[in-house]
Structure formats: C-alpha cells, structure tokens
C-alpha cells in the first residue's frame, strides 16, 4: 500500500524513481480506507533529504500512510526555502487539537548545546508532552532520542572525546520484542554524533528497556511504556552516501574530523561505500508501523 504525500513534494520524484508506491491527495480521497496518520517533526537542516530518507522507509509496508510535516516556529530554517516550508509544513498550533497514529522526531545538529540552550527547546517540550496523550507511538531519532531521554526520564547526555561517526555492529538484547522481530542477532547501523548517553543509566531506569546496543557506539534502541515511546540513537534512515557527505562537509569547515569508521572500502574516502544496513532499516520501520502504530491505534480517536 502507498504513502500519501502532497502532490508537489520534491521527494516524490526520488521515490517514484525507486518504485516506491506513493499516492497524492487527489487519488487518496477516492479510497474508502482508514489510513495511518503519521506526523514528522523534521529538525534536520537539509529537510528535503530527510523527507526522502524517512518516506522511503515508511512507504515499504502493506499499510496506507498519510504523512504530515511539522516545523518549529521558534527557529528559522537556514537550509530550506521558506516556500518549501510554507507549502508542505505546518506548525504545532495548527495541529495540537488533532490525534495522530504515529510521530517521528528527527535528530538535529545541536547536540553540543545544552538542551536549554536550543532556541526551540520549550516548543519541543510542549510537543513531546502533547505526544503522550495525542499520539499512539513516537519514534525519536539521534538527538531527538537524547531529548526524549532527558525530558521524559531525566537522563542527560555527555560529550564524546571525538565524534562517533561510522557503521557499527549492534547486538539484540531482547530477540522476542516485536520491534526487533526478524532482526539478526548482530546487525550494522550508522551513527553520527558528538554526544552519548550512559548505558548504565538506561539499564537502571525502571521505565526504560534497552533493546539493542553496540560495544563501540553505545545504547541504540530503547523502549518505554510498551513502545509508546521509542528512542533510536543512530541513523538507520541514512542513505549510502550520507556519512560521506557529512565527512566532506566537516572537512570543508576545517574541523578536526576522522574518517567514518567501518564505512569506506579499505578506509579510503575516494571509494564508494556500500549500504550494509538497509534491510534492518526497512524492518525496524515496518515493525514500528505494524506492531506499535497500526495494531495499537484506535480506529476512531475520541
């Protein structure tokens, strides 16, 4: 089944070229079906790239999914045109009266700031609090996961000695958990961040379950309230070249940055990296939509 997106969204052309089944408003309105309504709070600077990454994964299930994009009003996006934001994004004040089957809160390049220093922190706190009563399940990614752990559970982040960037091996701790259904005992996933959270704090917190982690990259998949809140500290949604693009960007800025680990063939940035995490990315998003959204959400929100 398709994902429903605005007819003129630029990501449409990318998704259609990959044979991902999409549907615009005009066609969807002729179908008598209760689709899942998924809201995406996109905090990433290059919003159109993130849109395509997430829509690619949300569009690979038998479920029909309506997508809406949310932006913060307390931060002015610098890398996305205002025309794009006006055309495809909404604000919290416009949707706070609604109920959603699922919410995705993306990462953001603000991790070296304290949470309170982020200009949209108060707005984000309102959205996270609202999600507890107005959303069936919320998926938090990277900095979004750290923000959720801090706001909901009082677990802070700490700065790493150097950026965690690369492809790392992870182990599954609870193979019977529905979110990890079909996962291999060990699998690969990308990380790209300067901060981390302590695995001991997560394991000792009575409301949290550590489902998967990496010896090198730390806690990865964390669940709370039977999957109503899910935190992913890395970037399974990343494309094959995303880490390469970030590495080149950081080099151009003159940052003291190392080559992403276990990523380029022979550790050579001149060679094209292979995507070795795509299947688990699709599996995680499919499991989330099926077991924690579709099978948990009411047919009619009261």
TrEMBL record:
Catalysed reaction equations from the record: L-homoserine + acetyl-CoA = O-acetyl-L-homoserine + CoA
Residues at which substrate binds: 163, 192, 249
The keyword Amino-acid biosynthesis appears for this protein: yes
CDD domains hit by this protein: GATase1_HTS
Pathway listed: Amino-acid biosynthesis; L-methionine biosynthesis via de novo pathway; O-acetyl-L-homoserine from L-homoserine: step 1/1
Active site: 142 (acyl-thioester intermediate), 235 (proton acceptor), 237
UniProt-listed Enzyme Commission number(s): 2.3.1.31
Cell location: Cytoplasm
An example Gene Ontology molecular-function term: homoserine O-succinyltransferase activity
Catalytic class of the enzyme: transferase
InterPro entries recorded: Class_I_gatase-like, HST_MetA, MetA_family
UniProt record similarity statement: Belongs to the MetA family.
Protein name: Homoserine O-acetyltransferase
Lineage per the UniProt record: Bacteria, Bacillati, Bacillota, Bacilli, Bacillales
């Amino acid at each position: 089944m398709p994902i429903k997106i605005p007819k003129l969204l630029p990501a449409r052309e990318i998704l259609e070229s990959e044979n991902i089944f999409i549907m615009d408003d005009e066609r969807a309105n002729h179908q008598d079906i209760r689709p899942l309504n998924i809201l995406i709070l996109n905090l990433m600077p290059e919003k159109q790239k993130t849109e395509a990454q997430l829509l690619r994964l949300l569009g690979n299930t038998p479920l029909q999914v309506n997508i809406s994009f949310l932006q913060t009003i307390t931060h002015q996006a610098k890398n996305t045109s205002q025309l794009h934001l006006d055309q495809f994004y909404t604000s919290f004040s416009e949707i706070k009266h609604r109920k959603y089957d699922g919410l995705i809160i993306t990462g953001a390049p603000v991790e070296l700031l304290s949470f309170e220093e982020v200009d949209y922190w108060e707005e984000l706190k309102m959205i996270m609090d609202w999600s507890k009563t107005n959303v069936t399940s919320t998926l938090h990614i990277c900095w979004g996961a750290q923000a959720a752990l801090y706001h909901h559970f009082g677990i802070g982040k700490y700065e790493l000695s150097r950026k965690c960037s690369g492809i790392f091996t992870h182990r599954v701790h609870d193979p019977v958990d529905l979110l990890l259904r079909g996962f291999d005992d060990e699998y690969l996933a990308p990380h790209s961040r300067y901060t981390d959270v302590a695995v001991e704090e997560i394991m000792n917190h009575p409301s949290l379950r550590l489902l998967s982690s990496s010896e090198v990259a730390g806690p990865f998949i964390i669940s709370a309230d039977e999957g109503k809140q899910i935190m992913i500290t890395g970037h399974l949604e990343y494309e094959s070249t995303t880490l390469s693009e970030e590495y080149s960007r950081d080099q151009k800025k003159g940052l003291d940055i190392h080559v992403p680990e276990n990523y380029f063939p022979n550790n050579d940035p001149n060679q094209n990296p292979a995507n070795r995490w795509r299947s688990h990315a699709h599996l995680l998003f499919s499991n989330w939509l099926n077991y924690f959204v579709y099978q948990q959400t009411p047919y009619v929100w009261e």
